[in-house]
Amino acid sequence: MTEVVSALDASFLEFETPSAHMHVIGVTVLDPATAIDGFGFATVRRVIETRLLPLERFRQRVHSPLLGLGSPLWQTDPRFDLDWHLRHIALPAPGGAAELETLVGDIASRPLGRDRPLWEMWVVEGLEHGRWALISKIHHTVVDGLSGAAVLAHLLDLEPRPKAASPPMVVTASEPDLLARVRAVGPRLLQELMASTPTPVFRGAMRLYERLAATNRARPLRI
Predict the structure, then answer these.
(1) What is the pTM of this model?
(2) Where are the domains of the chain?
(3) Per-residue pLDDT tens over the stretch 146-179
């Protein structure tokens, strides 16, 4: 399946630099003491495979058109490999907060490669008191803060016995926000701007205007 990356999400790609990464890091500490059927990397892998991968976005990569002429596209990665995205490592002794923070900082410091779906997860054993950690690294184009929380809630269980797997209902904030902007600006004016302005310039201008509006330094556009 192929679909166009929304203008707002595409701006997250365009504004990313080697020193400013547009991914979100999440850290979840897990206590497997009450796990009914035991706990290990295989357990987490099975949960990711049955609950996360049904979401198509986690199996798609971004295809950028030649010379930036046109909008980027979501395309299913023909060589998708879960074992590339899901890593299993051990935390150095003594497995405390300092060691975990160092590991998270190292993972966060490296950008996500554009040649694969824009996410990684690290299953970390060796935390003190027999605990594990799940470190998620997901690009803003895949999920925002709200839908990221929904995905995490779907992966985790509140009871020792796992719930039945089903794809989560994920609603990103970017689409409603984008729709609100279209209504505020007016579809006719927006279409004229998109038709007459190079795509990268248009997206950059919209992003700048968004920032100005957030600080009350720009008036609402009128048609």
Answers:
(1) 0.71
(2) 2-155, 174-214
(3) 577 777 777 877 777 776 655 554 444 444 444 4
- Over the range 177-195, which residues count as b (16 or more CB within 10 Å of their CB) and which as e? ebeebeeebeeeebeeeee
What are the two backbone dihedrals, phi and then psi, of residue 101, each rounded to the nearest 5 degrees?
-65, -40
> What pLDDT does residue 175 have?
43
Residues classed as catalytic: 140
How many residues in the chain? 223
SS3 content of the chain, % helix, strand, coil (to 5): 45, 20, 40
| Those residues with Cβ within 8 angstroms of residue 67's Cβ, 6 or more apart along the chain or in another chain | none
Q: How confident is the model at residue 95 (pLDDT cuts 50, 70, 90)?
A: very high
CATH architecture type of domain 2-155:
2-Layer Sandwich (3.30)
